[in-house]
Amino acid sequence: MALASQLPLAEIYAERSVRASAIRLLDEFLARRPASPEAPRVRQRLEQLKSAAPGR
Asked: What is the distance between the alpha carbons of residues 51 and 5, in angstroms, rounded to a whole number?
């Protein structure tokens, strides 16, 4: 999957309470682009999702 499409798709998953998929996509993004300008925002969103109550 193209990196450019991972972030919007992760947000769609998060909005629909498919947290595991959102977390997976954000983890993959950070693994491939840890120094990306978007990385701080992605890390913050990842922490929000991981600390949220378990979803579907």
From this structure: 24
Say how far apart CA 6 and CA 2 lie, in whole Å.
7
Say if residues 42 and 26 touch (Cβ distance below 8 Å). yes
Token pair recorded at residue 24 = 């997976």
Look up tokens 């950070």; give the residue. 30
| pTM of the model as a whole | 0.77
User: What does the alpha-carbon distance between residue 18 and residue 46 come to, in Å, rounded to a whole number?
Assistant: 13
pLDDT tens track for 11-53: 888 887 888 999 999 999 999 999 999 999 999 999 999 998 6
> Residue 49: which of 4, 29, 25, 5 has the closest Cα?
25
The phi, psi pair for 55, rounded to 5°, reads -110, -170
